[in-house]
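2024-03-11 09:14:02 DEBUG pipeline.ingest accepted 1 chain
2024-03-11 09:14:02 DEBUG pipeline.ingest length=470
2024-03-11 09:14:03 DEBUG pipeline.predict start
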Amino acid sequence: MAGSWAAEALTGARRRPYWLDTEEWPDAPERLDPLRGGLECDLAVVGGGYTGLWTALRAVERDPGRRVVLLEAGRCGDEASGRNGGFASASLTHGFGNGVQRWPEELDVLDRLGTANLDAIGETISRHGIDCRWERTGELTVATQPWQAAELAVLAEQMRAHGHEVDLLDETATRSAVHSPTYRAALREAQGTALVEPARLAWGLRQACLDSGVRIVEGTYVRDVVRAGDGVRVVADAGSARARQVVLATNAFRPLLRRLRSMTVPVYDYVLMSEPLTREQRAAVGWAGREGIGDAANQFHYYRLTRDDRILWGGYDAVYYAGSRIARSLEQSEETHGRLAAHFFETFPQLEGLRFSHRWGGVIDTCSRFAAFFGTAWQGRVAYALGYTGLGVAATRFGADVMLDLLHGEETERTALRMVRERPLPFPPEPVRSLGINLTRRSIARADEQGGRRDLWLRTLDRLGLGFDS
């Protein structure tokens, strides 16, 4: 029955990101002029998503006299930063489980820095008057199978041992919080997640940069970075910028440094947005706490409420296209959007008749350790951060400070971290890359079907510290 509801609910959905739809957000900013000719600056930032915007803003906050130029191929915030679910997590390690597995000896420091980072984002939003509906709602991780409930109980004990305040909810308490017949248990963390309107956060950071003296050029595709004496020249189609230092913040898109091209792969994530719930529909789902929700499966969904009580529903499929292909045509998927819609009504059958107003997809980058990595090139003149794997709404601000620390050349608490100093293992070249990723996806789906039991392939990847995720 959910499948028939799903097909009807998708009829008429706009094929564009809700957050970037000017019919919904008529105050969206106009694109700024492109770079023409040459200019000189102290710091050139390539890329106008969260990573680039936070880097530019933090650079002038830390050194008000610094001349900073940000170069963006389209409009700031139009790619991953404006298309995501708007979950801002305090975690710098793509979740507690990944952090405790990879960096157990410094996890408490990472948690403290992550909490301070999330607090600082809220303070920046308040100070600059950014209208992006920042809500410190916390998050529910819900179990829909007995094995997931058992794993959440273990996770709760681990998190409490590291000082996290979490509640483990049984089936009755979980269904009381959010009304779904699929729920069996939940882990509630009240402080570690904020929700935000992602494109409006990007637009607000863009304006904060402009107000702080950053020069932003948009519609400026950077084709290369080359050495220029004791600096670096950033080469675009109709001009160039000569800088003492450069930050590369292109994430999912082809890295300008050859050494980085095997370190990440582009993955497409798909999302639905419902029409606003009526008062009766809102009562039917409960959800008084407005928490962000994710389920505990390997192939997981994430969902949340908006300011006008729509439900954003995304995740599950993380799709890699052979050859690391990126194209606008890949932002729509009949198969995945249909599957997401069916899953939505399995979770909330009481919302039969609700329609989806928007459907879209977007490309993110993932790396083999699931968490961002950092580094420098060209004798410390160029810094980079990438590999956020879908959890960069908040972590990009931390990444910006890491890169600025690295460019400054002095060790800080951030740059001393093993998590910052280490690099992930690279992905193999094609066709082995596609074969490995597709095998991993099939094994992950099989694990969800078989009570969480991981096959030999997944266990081998676990031992090697490798994986594929969104």
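2024-03-11 09:14:41 DEBUG pipeline.report The chain has a mean pLDDT of 94.
2024-03-11 09:14:41 DEBUG pipeline.predict end
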